[in-house]
Amino acid sequence: MIPDSHSALSGAEIPDDPRLMQAVQEYLAELEAGRRPNRREFLKRFPELQAPLAQCLDGLDFVHKAAAPGIRPETTTRDVVRMPGNGAGTPADAVPANPLGDFQIIREIGRGGMGIIYEAVQLSLGRRVALKVLPFAATLNPRHLLRFKNEAQAAAQLHHTNIVPVYYVGCERGVHFYAMQLIDG
Amino acid sequence: MTAEQLISDARTGSAAALGSLLELYRNYLRLLARVEIGRRLQGKLDASDLVQDTFTEAHRNFGLFRGNAEPQLVSWLRQILAAKVANLVRHYFGTQGRDIRLEQDLARSIDNSSHALGGDLAASISSPSQAASRREQAVLLADALSRLPEDYRDVIVLRNLEGLTFPEIAKRMQRSQDSVEKLWLRGLARLRQVCGEAV
User: Fold this and answer.
1) Interface test with A, best of B112, B117, B168, B194 (most A CBs within 10 A)
2) Residue B14 burial by Cβ neighbours in a 10 Å radius (0-12, 13-18, 19+)
3) Helix (H) or strand (E) holding A134
4) pLDDT by residue (tens digit) across B33-91?
5) CA A1 to CA B143: how far, in whole Å?
6) Among B157, B141, B34, which residue's Cα sits nearest to residue A61?
7) Which of A64, A77, A125 is facing B66, going by the closest CB pair?
8) d(CA B72, CA A114)
9) Nearest CB to B192; choose among A20, A58, A69
10) Distance of alpha carbon B23 from alpha carbon B5, whole angstroms
11) CB contacts < 8 Å between A and B, how many?
């Protein structure tokens, strides 16, 4: 690890001006709402603070570029789970985003009580798996979600010749899924 | 040496290449471990130990890894780490008696931090040629954060990656809200400078 050279970097002068904090927070709120604020226009509104504000925005842009939109926990899964279960406009069997995390979906191979099963490839290991996906609309109901997780956990703990092993349990963009050994035929 | 070159050298059996390769992701994994451990288990699990365990397993099982680019490797390392966290949590809660709510909260927070620090990943995997030519943003961010003074880094991680509010952060760090807000601004302003050094 490279040691931080405090002295060499202390040139960053951040004025003690409450407007700076307000401006940076406003810009962050835009980013968190999933918008792309116009940086140049934004900076123009604060002529006296331009240099330090530009530095702070550079940092924020960097964090957000790395961290994707669903950065605040409150704005991701929780809100989805809390929404009333009308499901209008969300087809229950919409094909999930592909690839789903580490899994590239190839084709649908069946439907069970709790979700759709796909044949998929786990990209990092290059192996074929069966991927059980809880449809997005169904995640609106926390009880279904819990049942799905319990089922996956229970299956993962079982080691039996007639029961397929669970490799991975995950969630990507609100879609819950788990990967199992694929049995041909 | 790029990650892709190191992956290919490591595959031919070079232990040195594998060591250098994994080292590229130490900061990233430590950051992810830290966010995954979250506030509830802080002090009970150590992020550096988790990263070390993850490296040990990656060394042992590198033969199973099939990818050839950084995004796939990062995804693979993340899975190993997530499994380690899950096992430790199960162990910890196992000895304390079952608390379903805590486990659910933890599962949710693991999901969220993977989102937060892997959001770039899915996009890169879908275009392998592009992915090969640039580093994972989340890995670069973790490296830059590791070069910041600790209190600057803490505020950025808590605010921007764990999603706490400033009053919550102030309480957690036992400082005034005004002072954590100032640390945040200074950290953000410095982040680009320390990233500049990294590239």
Assistant:
1) B112
2) middle
3) strand A127-134
4) 887 776 556 667 788 888 999 999 999 999 999 888 888 898 889 888 877 777 776 66
5) 9
6) B141
7) A125
8) 29
9) A58
10) 14
11) 149
Whether residue A115 contacts residue A132, with contact meaning beta carbons closer than 8 Å, is answered with: yes
- pLDDT tens for B13-23 read 899 999 999 99
Do A124 and B112 make contact, defined as CB atoms within 8 angstroms? no
Sheet with strand A175-181: strands edge to edge: A103-111, A116-122, A127-134, A175-181, A166-172
Residues in chain A within 8 Å Cβ distance of B122: 97, 99, 101, 172
Please report the DSSP string for B103-128 in residue order: HHHHHHHHHHHHHHHHHHHHHHHTSH
Q: Note the ipTM here.
A: 0.76
Number of other CB atoms surrounding residue A93 within 10 Å: 12
Candidates A6, A102, A121, partner chain B, best to mutate (most B CBs within 10 A): A102
